[in-house]
Amino acid sequence: MALHFERAEFASRLARLTDKMKEEKLDALLLFAQESMYWLTGYDTFGYCFFQTLVVKADGTMALITRSADLRQARHTSVVEDIHVWVDRVNADPTMDLKNLLVEMDLLGSRIGVEYDTHGMTGRVSRLLDSQLTSFGQIIDASYLVSNLRLIKSPTEIAYVERAALLADDALDAAIRLTKPGADEADILAAMQAAIFTGGGDYPANEFIIGSGADALLCRYKAGRRKLDASDQLTLEWAGVYAHYHAAMMRTIVIGEPTHRHRELYNACLETIQAIETVLKPGHTFGDVFDMHARIMDERGLARHRLNACGYSLGARFSPSWMEHQMFHAGNPQPIEPSMSLFVHMIIADSDTGTAMTLGQTYLTTGDAPRALSRHPLDFIGV
């Protein structure tokens, strides 16, 4: 079987989950998030673009309902033994099959949690599910139950995050080697992704971000490539990925002579990320991290040019995003605890002068100061 963890670790995760379910007085939980299924059972697929759900009872019983295309996938990559297939057909409503399965599992009239806030749950599925289950039992939004459990990484998970971070560093090395006047963004992007695949890594859960010139101010992927000018700026955001675990990085590389504004914005990024390192540890919250970011940026007159979040938790994620639910934004009470993998990014987009600057890396939290997972320093990069 294609399992990335020992069965004992899966059993430990199931025990943590059922303990939390009992605490929340849930008789069952319907998992629609692919990363939840992967974390709990090892199930690895992109079949969540169709209807599927993993039913978990408070006694630890599990049953998966999915399509025929994923039957063997589930058998090969997961510890799930009870697998049910709903049949593709005209006007199919797999939520009826799910309700019948819940009856077989003696869950009629039960208190059932549902992962609503996930890319594996479309609006249509949500409406069909609610229609089937409204009178079936008490339905509770439990979108973040497993997500919160996944925040703390096991030793094996940490090893995968560290391997992902090594691949992210390799990708940056590949990018720097190619970045120069006349270089094609396509070649740089291809070299970065090749470094990760060659190192045994995986596809990322979302596209790498690459943009030069005016596009360097963007922080999302867009189609289209250009060649670098003699004086230019290149923003890159990417992640090393291993066994679906991500370690993200972000840099803006200046081609040619840096402007005064480039240097000024870089200094702001560096000062802020170094200050954040002093609060990225137990005793502080995700909100504290953002407050530090906002305070320093705003004191430098950069309030209009910064974002309203400065990072997030990372882990094993599936398309369309490698971002976890837990983000560094104002007022987030989530405590910082040891063994979290957290991406901190400084993004400044000065549209007035057309100047971009970014700086970001993934950290592993400890009992005290965080540990940066990149071998690269936070130095200004110019070519």
Automatic annotation (TrEMBL):
Residues 161-364 form the Peptidase M24 domain. CDD domains: APP_MetAP. The keyword DNA repair does not apply. This is Aminopeptidase P family protein. The keyword Acetylation does not apply. Residues 13-152 form the Creatinase N-terminal domain. Coiled coil: none annotated. It comes from the Bacteria. Signal peptide: none annotated. Pfam families: Creatinase_N, Peptidase_M24. Keywords: Aminopeptidase, Hydrolase, Protease. SUPFAM superfamilies: Creatinase/aminopeptidase, Creatinase/prolidase N-terminal domain. One of its GO terms (molecular function) is aminopeptidase activity.
